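Action item from last meeting closed. Structure (402 res):
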């Protein structure tokens, strides 16, 4: 029997006592993915991107594995919550915050102030942090990290690839911001981060699109070369102003490339643990699908088609078909082009439909990693062919940060 069909029988058996819709994580696949990621990092630690996991139990399990150290959180309230709950004592918030109340909580709590580092990329937030700290009775220094623009400018700046993030681009920009930080007694410069989304988050082997693949590979090569030189110069310029505890870079798609840069001390990554569908199109690694959701078959509209309940769990980003979930098991099902994945029902077409009966279940994969957890309050963690334990997602703990 082919491996996917064996997995399907395993997942069906493990969850037979549960009613779908439901979400599972296959722990063996997750562990294999984690080990593959740390092997690719070649000895540099991976800071776990919590947005790509969104489940405290799994975050804890991964942090206990060799090769993972610290959390890359996505909001300051999330980071404070994780610190308070004792999940981790080294949490970098990967995106800037303008949450004055959370900044005041951070500065007012010695434990949180020691554990959490916030992201800055211009002088205004420095004032905001200081003001929030001044509103507390006994403020503690706030740890900050400078976010660097890792985008690539081609055609003399006319074509920009990469996420629109920081305005800090040159060694001079970064050194000036570092100097502004160290001049403020209430702030501590802890690190630098530069996330090359155009390499780490864009698959270089899109199925059936050879021209696009060639263009992606060309731009990624150029961008990687440019960034390695610029990142090293920025790190040197900032280290001349103040010491740095860490230089963070990369993501699931670029682990080995980013880790190879001497200036980088750690990688920020998480998606590769669940191995969602958007991470299938990379040449440098192949993860095992670890996070899945099951929907019940509720209709049989005709030959070659079944209809499942729910399923419209679209991923964020530029809206296109790649953001849709994908039918996974049984093999041989596809979405209907007209209907996609629906709010309340999802037709699935293909030869496998005729073997499915009402009440059977179909297994799908989300396009992205942690967003699945915004749809489910629990994850059933599968070990072999049983549910070893059922744990809450962030949502299940009443936490919907974004
Ligand atoms: C700052 C930062 N680092 C790293 C990553 C990579 O995360 P992942 O490997 O989970 O895709 C992201 C993803 O958006 C990010 O925003």
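Sequence:
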């Amino acid at each position: 029997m082919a491996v996917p069909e064996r997995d399907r029988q395993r997942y069906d058996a493990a969850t037979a006592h549960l009613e779908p819709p439901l979400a599972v994580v296959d722990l063996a696949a997750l562990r294999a993915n984690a080990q593959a990621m740390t092997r690719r990092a070649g000895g540099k630690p991976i800071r776990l991107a919590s947005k790509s996991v969104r489940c405290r139990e799994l975050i804890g399990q991964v942090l206990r594995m060799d090769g993972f150290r610290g959390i890359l959180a996505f909001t300051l309230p999330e980071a404070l919550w994780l610190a308070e709950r004792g999940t981790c004592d080294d949490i970098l918030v990967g995106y800037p915050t303008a949450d004055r109340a959370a900044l005041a909580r951070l500065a007012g709590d010695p434990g949180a102030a020691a554990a959490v580092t916030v992201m800055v990329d211009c002088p205004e937030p420095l004032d905001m942090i200081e003001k929030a700290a001044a509103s507390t009775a006994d403020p503690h220094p706030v740890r900050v990290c400078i976010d660097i623009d890792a985008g690539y400018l081609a055609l003399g700046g006319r074509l920009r690839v990469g996420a629109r993030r920081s305005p800090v681009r040159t060694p001079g920009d970064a050194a000036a911001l570092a100097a502004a930080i160290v001049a403020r007694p209430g702030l501590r410069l802890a690190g630098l981060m530069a996330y090359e989304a155009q390499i780490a988050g864009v698959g270089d082997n899109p199925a059936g699109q050879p021209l696009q693949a060639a263009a992606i590979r060309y731009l990624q090569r150029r961008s990687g070369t440019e960034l390695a030189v610029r990142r090293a110069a920025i790190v040197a310029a900032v280290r001349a102003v103040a010491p740095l505890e860490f230089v963070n870079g990369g993501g699931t798609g670029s682990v080995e490339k980013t880790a190879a840069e001497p200036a980088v001390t750690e990688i920020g990554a998480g998606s590769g643990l669940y191995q969602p569908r958007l991470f299938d199109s990379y040449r440098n690694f192949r993860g095992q699908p670890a996070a899945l959701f099951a929907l019940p078959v509720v209709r049989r509209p005709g030959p070659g088609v079944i209809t499942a309940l729910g399923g419209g769990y679209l991923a964020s980003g530029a809206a296109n078909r790649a953001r849709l979930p994908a039918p996974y098991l049984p093999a041989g099902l596809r979405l209907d082009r007209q209907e996609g994945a629906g709010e309340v029902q999802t037709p699935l077409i293909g030869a496998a439909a005729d073997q499915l009966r009402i009440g059977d279940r179909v297994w799908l994969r989300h396009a992205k990693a942690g967003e699945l957890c915004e749809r489910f309050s629990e994850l059933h963690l599968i070990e072999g062919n049983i549910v070893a334990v059922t744990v809450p997602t962030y949502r299940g703990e009443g936490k919907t940060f974004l």
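Note appended to the action item: The longest helix spans residues 210-239.
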